[in-house]
UniProtKB/TrEMBL annotation:
<keyword id="KW-0472">Membrane</keyword>
<dbReference type="GO" id="GO:0006893">
    <property type="term" value="P:Golgi to plasma membrane transport"/>
</dbReference>
<feature type="domain" description="V-SNARE coiled-coil homology">
    <location>
        <begin position="176"/>
        <end position="235"/>
    </location>
</feature>
<dbReference type="Pfam" id="PF00957">
    <property type="entry name" value="Synaptobrevin"/>
</dbReference>
<dbReference type="GO" id="GO:0005546">
    <property type="term" value="F:phosphatidylinositol-4,5-bisphosphate binding"/>
</dbReference>
<dbReference type="InterPro" id="IPR028258">
    <property type="entry name" value="Sec3-PIP2_bind"/>
</dbReference>
<comment type="subunit">
    <text>Part of a ternary complex containing SNAP25 and STX1A that can be dissociated by NAPA and NSF. Interacts with STX4A.</text>
</comment>
<dbReference type="GO" id="GO:0005886">
    <property type="term" value="C:plasma membrane"/>
</dbReference>
<dbReference type="InterPro" id="IPR037822">
    <property type="entry name" value="STXBP6_SNARE"/>
</dbReference>
<dbReference type="GO" id="GO:0000145">
    <property type="term" value="C:exocyst"/>
</dbReference>
<dbReference type="GO" id="GO:0035542">
    <property type="term" value="P:regulation of SNARE complex assembly"/>
</dbReference>
<comment type="function">
    <text>Forms non-fusogenic complexes with SNAP25 and STX1A and may thereby modulate the formation of functional SNARE complexes and exocytosis.</text>
</comment>
<keyword id="KW-0963">Cytoplasm</keyword>
<keyword id="KW-0175">Coiled coil</keyword>
<dbReference type="InterPro" id="IPR037821">
    <property type="entry name" value="STXBP6_PH"/>
</dbReference>
<protein>
    <recommendedName>
        <fullName>Syntaxin-binding protein 6</fullName>
    </recommendedName>
</protein>
<keyword id="KW-0007">Acetylation</keyword>
Amino acid sequence: MMPVLLFQGPCKRENSLRALVTWLTMSAKSAISKEIFAPLDERMLGAVQVKRRTKKKIPFLATGGQGEYLTYICLSVTNKKPTQASITKVKQFEGSTSFVRRSQWMLEQLRQVNGIDPNRDSAEFDLLFENAFDQWVASTASEKCTFFQILHHTCQRYLTDRKPEFINCQSKIMGGNSILHSAADSVTSAVQKASQALNERGERLGRAEEKTEDLKNSAQQFAETAHKLAMKHKC
């Protein structure tokens, strides 16, 4: 459901506008996945809405003239094996509800991913391919961060020989492996704690068994002594 902006104060209205932008972006990405990639038996892994940092004037567009448009950089993989990953530029022209596939590169053609600034959240980034170079700014820094994380993980998973270079990226963007290591450390820690608990429980059970054996022996000795005394008095 689309967020409602009516009868709200300035702060709430600003939050609602952000929610509306997020909702529209998510709706657009869902539509792109269904219109552009699903018919080709491809699965879209992620997308980021972008604008060029350096304005590029295009006097004539495929639609028949000049016009405004939204641009998305999309990452997808084929469902058919062997899996092929690709990066596609998708546009939506003003006044149209449909999306158009423009440029496309195989993931193997990606040479460098530049996050611009490793010390702060930045929406700017560059992509360098074998035959192309683009300078972009994402709609938000968080959207860029999410796309970079998916892109980095996809490169690690599907590229075996030549992987692109990720430069000027924040550690959280490259955090796919660290997240996995952190999860592995957590599992290892949990196993160690469980093992320690079992060992301690085993020690307690061992001591309990020893005490039980001692009590058993004491009871047996007491019974033998009582029997001897009873026989003595009987005699």
